[in-house]
What does this fold into?
Amino acid sequence: MNWSDVELSQAAWRKSTRSGSSGGGCVEVATNLPGVTAVRDSKNPDGPVLLFVPGEWGAFLNGIRSGDLTA
It folds into this structure.
């Protein structure tokens, strides 16, 4: 995948259900982009974006759900 071809202006961002309303660590995810999942800090929407291909994103979510990845 050529990351420069990802059109982030088309991203439909949604806040993670795990993000609180207290202004702490808020993560937004866009899953509507072809072939990638995009992740960003909601407090810095013009800042860096992490891009994951489906297998990477799935492994990340599985690691969180299983407890292998913790904060």
Observations:
- DSSP finds one helix and four strands in the chain.
- The radius of gyration is 13 Å.
- The beta strands are 14-15, 27-30, 37-41, 49-52.
- The mean pLDDT is 87.
